[in-house]
Amino acid sequence: MAAGILRGAFRLTALGAWRVPAEGPVILAVNHTHNVDGPVLMALSPRPTHFLVKKEAFVGPAGTFLRGIGQLPVDRESVDRAAVVSALAVLEAGGVLGIFPEGTRTQGDFATIRSGLAYFALRSGAPIVPVAVLGGGDRRGRLVRALPPPRARIDAVFGAPFPVGDGGVRRTRAALDEATGMIQERLASHLKEARRLTGR
Fold it and tell me: How many domains does the chain have?
């Protein structure tokens, strides 16, 4: 139902969704510019995806809905151990975890990413699939500043999965920093290629 509403509100296109492994644990690393980025990925991903979503969104009926579709609340102001356990449980069960490695809405260019993505990849051994969400128009003329205008074209470009660890790597600060640097390079490279493919 939610996917149908999104497809009615925006012009959604998935490119390279076949690159998401058909089974086993996977992490989708997604850039973040709009409030609809998570729902767009849930609509376009070939597999059910569990996103870490700021806990402030889990209020009233919206919270009931988000929990009902398997989304995970996270406290962005501290180390949320309950969220970490829930996210690892998704991967341990062979599911798909969605992460916005920038931590919040930005220009969506992966200019800075947090180490949580590297932690989950190293801890679980799950491959990372980079995803670039592009489009939605500029901020002028939007009814709601954090949302794309109605019928805006939004492309989700899925990249090739890449490994970070096999689950046996020591998760030291140095290992996390090294992995985070490597991941950021891969994400930035994918974003550049996605822009070339879509003309964005």
Answer: 1
Structural domain span for residue 119: 2-198
Each residue's pLDDT, cut to its tens digit, for the chain (200 residues) gives 455 555 656 678 899 999 999 999 999 999 877 777 788 888 899 999 998 877 887 777 767 777 777 788 887 777 778 888 999 999 999 999 999 888 665 565 676 678 889 999 999 999 999 999 987 655 444 444 556 666 678 889 999 999 987 666 566 888 888 999 999 999 999 999 999 998 87
pTM of the model: 0.85
Give the sheet arrangement for strand 26-30, strand by strand. 11-15, 153-158, 128-135, 26-30, 96-99, 49-54, 72-74
